[in-house]
Amino acid sequence: MPATLLTETLVADMLKEQIDVTKLPQHIAIIMDGNGRWAKSQGKHRVFGHKNGVQAVREASEACAEIGVPYLTLYAFSTENWNRPKTEVSALMELLILTIGREVKTLQKNNIRLNAIGQLDLLPDSCKKALDKAIRETSANTRMTLTLALSYSSRVEITDMVKSIAEKVKNNELNPSDITPEIVHNHLYTHDLPDPELLIRTSGETRISNFLLWQIAYAELCFIEKYWPDFSREDLYAAICEFQNRERRFGMTSEQILSE
Ligand code: IPE
Ligand code: IPE
Ligand code: MG
Q: Which of 203, 208, 227 gets mutated to test ligand 1 (max ligand atoms within 8 A of its CB)?
């Protein structure tokens, strides 16, 4: 094993040992950002960065499943990303089809269920088919739910939620005074997922870019400088350690939290 890889593995093991597995975030969400800049820094085309981002997806998924995080959500393509140059969008869609096809076996082996949120009907047919097939084939897996946010916009998700609730009110199935945050949650794309407790964004950008706006109300945010293709287990474990060292107060005082 090369020396740098050996050091990385040792650091990852050390960090892993510091994690209290009884206090894991139940849902981690990641904004996988920086593929383009990673490629550019090596004088390569942006698509080269996307291709190299796949390995980091694998690392993050396996590390989460291994340690016992039950839900992982990855922001892979936003509604706004449709506005990128046509060639980049096509390359991303092709990469998605190829990766889903290739990774189903690993998902099965690792007992991971694949799930997707977003305006999936906007995806090309071949992409939608590959995704549906992988979701169907992994639907009985129980170790972890891996959700891909594809063609995803949180504002569109919230708008869709409002439309479906309005429809129920119109049909007298629901009284406006009975609408609660729980009812809102039940009408989001993520109705079957707990809210993320930890949100990670790579690439040094410190913004949310229209991702899970409702769901991250009380998530701990962790911004990492590295570009996504360089993200490794070590970074995931470090983020979980940081999460566990934070005091989550949910509006209460520190004294209240400590006396609990
Ligand atoms: C994230 O990397 C991948 C997608 C948004 C599809 P970017 O492609 O945004 O890379 P940068 O941020 O331009 O470096
Ligand atoms: C957010 O990254 C979307 C994904 C990671 C899929 P962007 O690169 O699209 O976000 P902005 O444009 O920098 O905010
Ligand atoms: Mg970006």
A: 203
13 as an active site residue: the answer is: no
Domain assignment present for residue 230? The answer is: yes
pLDDT, tens digit, for every residue of 182-203? 999 999 999 999 999 999 999 9
Centroid of ligand 1 to alpha carbon of 176 (angstroms): 40
Residue 206: pLDDT over 80: yes
Q: Which domain holds residue 40?
A: 25-240
Q: pTM (2 decimals)? A: 0.97
Bridge partners of residue 200, in order along the sequence: 30, 222
pLDDT of residue 6: 83
Residue 16 belongs to a domain:
no
* Nearest partner of 199 among 213, 184, 189, 188, judged by Cα: 213
* Band (117; pLDDT cuts 50, 70, 90): very high
215 part of a folded domain: yes
Domains contained in the chain, number: 1
pLDDT tier for residue 4 given thresholds of 50, 70 and 90: confident
The enclosing domain of 192 has a CATH number of 3.40.1180.10
Rounded to 10 degrees, what is the CA torsion of 244, 250, 254, 258? -60
Examine residue 245 and state whether it is found in any structural domain, yes or no.
no
Q: Computed over its alpha carbons, how large is the radius of gyration of the chain? A: 19
Is 195 a residue of the active site? no
